[in-house]
Write a structure and sequence with these properties.
The chain is α+β, with helices and mostly antiparallel strands. The protein has one domain (13-121): 2-Layer Sandwich (Ribosomal Protein S5, domain 2). It contains 4 helices and 6 strands. The chain has helices spanning 55-58, 62-74, 92-110, 115-121; strands at residues 13-17, 23-31, 34-42, 48-50, 53-54, 81-88. Strands 1-2-3-6-4-5 form a 6-stranded mixed beta sheet. Helix 2 (62-74) runs parallel beside helix 3. The chain starts with 12 loop residues before the first strand and ends in a 29-residue tail after the last helix.
């Protein structure tokens, strides 16, 4: 059985070529119940389109907008790409986190040298926090039923 000398890493994205001949860098991001599919298109105007809507129309809060563009800002690639994305599942917070995760992974598909930098900021790590399951004998995950002594 051969031993591998270098670590085996699962590919986190891929490079697409459209019928028009455009090169796109694809990756998937996840957060809570949300999944975002992200395509980076080099040489664009810097617009970010999510579910066929501009990002500012899609996420209404400025804090979520800042969260989504953070990987582009810290790598100084903010105007270099057009970002096309689809986000499904969960709510706006989860979708914004999934978009951030997907953009960071797509940037590493474009340039592998950005990986340690993005890892340092925590953009490549999937946030494992999820909704805690409801337990029997409780109203929700931890809240008990209302109790009256008398």
């Amino acid at each position: 059985m051969p031993l591998h000398t270098e670590p085996v890493r699962k590919r986190e994205g891929k490079i697409d070529i459209t019928p028009k001949g455009e090169i796109r860098f694809y990756a998937t991001g996840r957060r809570k119940e949300s999944v975002a599919r992200v395509w980076l298109i080099p040489g664009g105007t810097g617009q970010i389109i999510v579910n066929n809507r501009p990002l500012l129309d899609y996420v209404t809060r400025v804090s979520l907008y800042e969260e989504v563009i953070e990987p582009l800002r810290v790598t100084n690639t903010l105007g270099m790409f057009d970002v096309m994305a689809t986000a499904k599942g969960g709510g706006l917070n989860g979708q914004a986190g999934a978009l951030r995760h997907g953009i960071a992974k797509a940037l590493t598909v474009w340039n592998e040298k950005l990986r340690p930098f993005l890892r340092q900021y925590g953009f490549l790590t999937r946030d494992p926090r999820a909704k805690e399951r409801k337990k029997y004998g409780h109203k929700r995950a931890r809240r008990g039923f209302q109790f009256r002594k008398r």
